[in-house]
Amino acid sequence: MIKVGITGGIGSGKTYVSKMFEALGVPVYYADERAKELMQNNEELRAAIIANFGEEAYAGGSLNREFLAQVVFQNADLLAKLNSLVHPAVAKDTEEWNKLHQDKTYTIKEAALLFETGSNKQLDKTILVHADEEERILRVMQRDHVSKDKVMSRIQHQMKDIEKMQFADFIINNDGKREIEKMVHKIHSYFSYAMV
Q1: What span, in angstroms and rounded, lies between the C-alpha atoms of 70 and 183?
Q2: What confidence tens digit (pLDDT) does each residue in 7-54 have?
Q3: 131 near 33, Cβ under 8 Å?
């Protein structure tokens, strides 16, 4: 089974592209969504977050994402600390998930921070969904109803696409002008019939 990763900056359309692969019958592991679930339900991870960030991280028994985001996005060391707790839990969960799909030719792991965390090293191939920064900012402002400053602060915590391109095996340009479906089908054919 070939393990493929899909990544892209916030607002690039990586989830949209992942859903296209899913529609073709490819199992997709949504790492960012699973991370939220694990932070809420994995007792070991929950205890580690409380030990490092205090009880306020789980106000009312639920993960207090607003509090955590406020704390970590203002402090690079605390962000690194949170990532050092969450990413190993996600890596383990991905491994277990992949075992459930061993009958498939390939699986996809969709993650915002694929190269930043080094989790691309556990994968056979990677796909980068690329879009211009201005386009991404507009998409996120409309989607999340947030200010440009808020989007920019999130973008600053991600590797630039120009750097990601050096690591990616495939690049899908989601500029609204090219036919993404054609690119997805081409990549799907490659993984379906080629031995990586």
Answers
A1: 38
A2: 999 899 999 999 999 999 999 999 999 999 999 999 999 999 999 999
A3: no
Tokens representing 54?
């205090």
Q: Report DSSP letters for the chain, one per residue.
A: -EEEEEE--TTS-HHHHHHHHHHTT--EEEHHHHHHHHHHH-HHHHHHHHHHH-GGGGGGGS--HHHHHHHHTT-HHHHHHHHHHHHHHHHHHHHHHHHTTTTSSEEEEE-TTTTTTTGGGG-SEEEEEE--HHHHHHHHHHHHT--HHHHHHHHTTS--HHHHHHH-SEEEE-SSSS-HHHHHHHHHHHHHH---
C-alpha neighbours within 13 Å on the C-beta side of residue 171: 13
- pTM equals 0.88
**Residue for token digits 């960030």?**
53
What Rg do the C-alpha atoms of the chain give, in angstroms? 17
Strands 170-173 and 106-110: unpaired
**What is the tens place of the pLDDT at every residue in 72-86?**
878 889 988 999 999
Any idea which residue has 């996120």 for tokens?
140
